[in-house]
Structures are given as C-alpha cells and as structure tokens.
Amino acid sequence: ERNMKISLITLQSVRNYGSVLQAFATQSLFESIGFDVEIVNYFKSKPANNNIAKGWAKRINKPLILTRMVLAPTINKWNRVFDTFLQNKLHLTPDMYISNKDFLTHPIQADAYCVGSDQVWNSDWNRGFLGPLFLNYAPDDAYKFAFSSSFGKAVLSDTEKPQIKQHLERFNRISVREQQAVSILEDLGIQDVQHVLDPTLCMTKEFWNKLVGKRPIKQPYLLVYQLNSNKEFDQYAQKLAKKMNLKLVRICTRYDQIIKLGKSVIIPEVNDYVSLFYYADFVLTDSFHGTGFSINFNKQFCSVYPEKFSSRISSILKLTGLSNRHLKSFEDFTEPLKRIDYAYANNILDIERDKAQQYLTQVKSDLTINKEISR
What we know:
Blueprint: E1 4-9, H1 17-33, E2 35-42, H2 49-60, H3 64-89, E3 92-97, H4 100-105, E4 112-118, E5 143-149, H5 161-168, E6 173-176, H6 179-187, E7 194-195, H7 199-202, H8 205-209, E8 221-225, H9 231-244, E9 247-252, E10 263-266, H10 270-279, E11 282-285, H11 288-296, E12 301-303, H12 312-319, H13 343-374
Parallel strand pairs: 1-2, 1-4, 2-3, 4-5, 5-6, 6-7, 8-9, 8-11, 9-10, 11-12
C-alpha cells in the first residue's frame, strides 16, 4: 500500500530563515503522519536579484548601481545558503512554477493538494491575489486543504473578499495560524476553520536538535536577531548584554550590518541559525520565528514589537502565557532579568501540537474514505 501523495505549495522561495524552516517543518510533520510530500517549486515572480537591489536603493535613497555593488556579496551568499538548504532538505518539484501557465504546462498529480503555512494569503506581501496560493491549479474534484495558513493581517479589504471566498469554498478543510484568520473566514461565511500552530512550533525541540551543530561561540552570549533596524534597540541590546555579563552576538542578514555593535554572524547556514538559538543564554528579537525558536528551546528571551502590531508575535506570547516577555520600553532592565518558568508554555505547546496532529489525521481519514468510495 503506497503512501498518499500531498502536493504542498508554500513560500519556501522567499529565502529567509522563517520561510525555509517552516517549509521543512511542514514537510516533516506530514511525513510523520504517513504522507509523501512534494513541494511545488513556486516563485511569486521571476527570481531576479535585481529586484532586491531596486527595493534597497529606494529604501536607503541611493543610486541603484551603487546599491547593487554593495549588495552583490550579500545576495550571492543568501542564494547559496538558502538554495543549499532547499536542495538538501526539501522534496521540490523538478519544474519551476511562476505563472498560472506553468501549472497547465506541467500539471501536478497528487492525492491531495495543500497550501500552507506562512503568510501565503497576505495580499500586501504578495502584491495582490495569487491564484496558485489558493490552489487554483488543483482539479475541481481533488481534495484540497490549508495547513496553518496566514493572512498576516486582521482585516481583508472589500475588494479581495469575493475572490478569496470563491476560492476557499472549494477547500475540504482549512486550518489557519492566527485566531484573527478564523474570524476573517467566519465573516466570509466559511465555517469549521481550525486554528493550529506555526509548523516550526508543531515540531518539538528534539526534532530541531537534529539540525544543531557544535557550539558556535565559546563564551556565554546574548543573541540578537533583528529584522527592522532601530538604533534604540541596538543600544538597549548592548546595555542588556553588559548587565547580564554576556557577549553580544547578532545574526546579520547583510554584509553591511557588520558595523553594528557586537559580534556579527553574517548570513549563517540554516543549521547554524538554529544552533545560535539553541546555545544562546538570552535572546532579544523582533522576529516571529526568532520568538518561536526561543520558546521552543525554552530560552530566556524578550520580544520587541510596536503596540500597533498586535501581531503574530503577541498571539504566540499570549497563547503560551508569556505576554510579559513583550519588551515595552527600552528603559526596562528588570523584566528581562526575571527567569521564565516554562512548565505552562510547554504544556500548551503539547496540547496545540496534538491539535495539529488531529487535524492532519482527519485529512488522512477523509482521503482514505474517498479512496474507498472511488474504488
């Protein structure tokens, strides 16, 4: 009896740590249920290094040619680090898919079609509605489901509602990553939506330990993983490390960030990224996956995010009873020094992991029933 094959479409090609690790976690979770997984090698637009440089030139208000020269080493290393991980760890389709036409030219055969996780339904991030991320390429009579998908925002614009509703009504089952998304879908008249954890948290620390290598830094250290530049954050990290008597270490996503305070680890390999969290004595981060790995590895940590983004970071902190780890002020040096007791958070994570397993088990039993009927 062969395993059922799931075709999974997600945002692995975005090339950041969170995106590739959630894709790897989803694939591994599905395999643990007994599915064979093939990930659609999907790109939202032509993979052009020029676009990255263009975006940067605009943001920092410098000429494109100069930006391109400065960014070239960064882009080359990025591509190498993430391509190596994707090729070694993910079961990708041999063909690349960019436009709707590609799905017609190389049709994808599977027992079921899944879209998940990450901000696959975020139209701001995706610059509009992307049909493939709503499984428009899956045959009408095929089994379709969503796993831990996210809109990345609290409300949809009125213009996108009809299109999203029309596509999601074709789904057999839907699970989403944030409580907000459940409400968004209920407003569209889509019922029985389940709320599940981000796949990186669905996998236990024992799973992630397999990626961990040897200790990257000899001394005890405070790890900074910061996605949005902020001078106050930088100064705070330096003071906090000093107070805690820890070496300041930062994961940098660009070569030009080497001038920042502390020891820079520039675009680490994906395994080394996980190792840096695993061995850290304290983590300071404004990233959702940075927060997720800190909680999963039971680290002492604080998350930094503006109040107005009562975003996915606040929702995971709330769920795990760790809302006090939201650093509200760069004057606050008392909260970070309080030890976290992880008993409650670990218990909640176990319960939530069971929910994700149950959801996938339901999918599996739906598929088995369908198979019996069609015999």
